Amino acid sequence: MKKIIALLLTVAVTLCLLTGCKAKDTGAPPTLEYLYNTSESHQAIGEYIQSAFGAAGITVNLTNQEWGTFLHTRKIGDFTFARNGWLADYSDPISFLDMWTTNSGNNDVQFGKGNHKSVNIYSLDLRDEGYDINVENGTWAETYDALIGIIKSSTDTEQRYRLMHLAEDMLMDTGCITPLYFYTDLYMKDKNLRGFYSSPLGYKFFMHTTYPGKSSISVSLASEPESIDPALSSTVDGATMIAHLSSGLARWSVDADGKLIIVADSAESLSEGVINDDGSVTYTYTLRKGLKWSDGSPVTAGDFEFSWKRAASAELGADYGYMFEVIKGYGEKNSELMVRALDDRTLEVTLSVPVAYWNELLAFPTYCPVKSEAVKNEGWATEAETYIGNGPYVISSWEHNGCITLKKNENYIDRDKVTMPEIKFFLSDDANNMLTNFKNRSWQLIDNLPTNEIDALKRDYPDEFITAGQIGTYYIAWNINRDLLPSSFDKLSANEREIANAEIRRALSLIIDRNYIAEEIGKAGQIPASSFVALGIKNPDGSEFCSTAGNSDSFIGYFDVSREAYKENVYYALDVLMKYYNLKIP
Fold it and tell me: What's 353's DSSP letter?
């Protein structure tokens, strides 16, 4: 790798000027810090990036943090660039795009925050789409945030998708999102474990499993969950736990052919909406008779009203609070979310416009109910003794950083359909430990594998090594408020600095060989990604959204990820970087 880049550098030519700065004004590149969380595969990717950037004369230090600390560090923006991954919340492209609005709890890049709040270099012209909007040199809030708002209010399907492609164009132009590959879901499953299924969002379901001679199974998905409060959870492992402990109006299931579907859960049925004169849509749901909390008290429509308003509230500040934007009244002054309990069993909710993925939202963990009395205790979702849910299981014990044990909830309305009496979720981020416990049959499913064992596992466990489809993208996130320019460019304005930083970030992304990462590190059929919205998200005509991303006539996406293009990508990247840096190839 170093030899390839060094050879290319010998023929790279400095071409361009930037606001009066010539090649002689270049300086030493900054030392970069790459943040990742404990995992062999994350570490291997970090080491590869360190090597690839190092071959171009850019030093990268690696910082490893445990899961909870890592998430917090990203959230507060205390990093330069970091590993990240995003799994779809529902099968609409907006689930990859609305997370980057200024006030989204998942906006780790810090768009519209800090110094970036006042940067006004973005443009948005929607006059051809029928909107009186033409912003030149606007802020992120005036352009990207506004565009996402319009997308969410549009009822024209074709227009929505055009605008979502425009939103991804804006996002990728910043260079802050560096896609590496589209996910596959890689895990080991004991061949004797029957009835297990997982959703394309990565959630795993064990309530209908059986195992010969066992009334308890042991699995390991991740380390201590960040949160299992339905309103506050924002991780896949947390969502899996909530799926077993809570029951929303809808849930993921499988039909007789094994196809994943959304079905009614706490609701008797998934009703059709009624379109109102103002274009809004009202849904009315009837709860099933006999719904109970795990403490035996009744679950009412009022519990759903309370829970949704809590999850959407500014006071709670939940990462996924914006998931309720589709409901009328969200974020409006002197107004509240238009969801109300008409009686103990009837819930009415009004959406601002028709939403194609509404049933998927109803199956999302954030829409699960919580008991108002329970959540008065802020630590209610951190101990077995205080956790109250309405799902198939209850927490019988919780050994922090050790094991969460679930047992069948005798107050669950479908308790007779729950086939596995007990599930032990062992909490670990040590892939070697997980594999050892799988091999000795102590654990029946593990969701993390040592990278160096993958080839052997494929060969030795062909019936138990699982590669499943998953709608998600593994990527690098750059903190938009971290300056990558040398001191020789100090006279540039804030706007000029951001333009230059964006060019640098885009160039650095081209130094990364995505095929190498997918084939030599991932080894699980991952597909090199040239866009952020993942494979598996469809356009209205059934084609892949990612297949129509970008504006190139010669490749799909925002850069060419083919093996044949890699050397040319590196050449171009170095050509750009030499406008800013005095690169010294090791």
Answer: S
pTM of the full predicted structure?
A: 0.83
Burial class (CB in 10 A: 0-12, 13-18, 19+), 453: middle
Number of domains observed in the structure of the chain: 2
Torsion of CA 357, 93, 91, 83, to 10 degrees: -130
Does residue 556 come out as left (phi exceeding 0), alpha (psi in the -120 to 50 range) or beta? beta
Say whether both 172 and 200 belong to one domain: no
Residues 209 and 256 in one domain: yes
Q: Are residues 265 and 373 in the same domain?
A: yes
Please check whether residues 282 and 323 belong to one and the same domain. Answer: yes
- Residue 255 carries which side chain, given as an amino acid letter? D
Does 63 share its domain with 172? yes
Burial state string for 311-344 with b = 16 or more CB within 10 A and e = fewer than 16: bbeeeeebbbbbbbbbbbbbeeeeeebbbbbeee
Domain region containing 418 = 191-429
Is beta strand 81-87 parallel, antiparallel or unpaired with respect to 32-37?
Answer: parallel
450-479 pLDDT, tens digit each: 988 999 999 999 999 998 888 999 999 999
Among candidate residues 380, 401, 429, the one where a domain is terminated = 429
Q: For residue 161, what is the enclosing H or E element?
A: helix 157-173
My answer on whether 339 and 422 are in the same domain is: yes
- Please report which residue ranges of 12-156 form alpha helices under DSSP H: 40-55, 67-76, 94-97, 140, 146-153
250, 359 Cβ separation under 8 angstroms: yes
Cα gap 255→27, rounded to integer Å: 61
Three-class DSSP labels, 516-557: HHHHHHHCCCCEECCCCCCCCCECCCCCEHHHHCCCCCCCCC
- Please give the Cα distance from 1 to 56 (Å, whole number): 10
Q: For residue range 188-218, list pLDDT tens digits in order.
A: 999 999 999 998 888 999 999 999 999 999 9
Q: Is residue 174 part of a domain?
A: yes
Q: What's the rounded Cα separation, in Å, for the pair 333 and 337?
A: 11
d(CA 539, CA 95): 14
Beta-strand runs (E) in 327-464 = 339-343, 346-351, 393-399, 403-408, 422-426, 445-446
Last residue of a domain, one of 380, 411, 429: 429
Tokens of 19: 């606001």
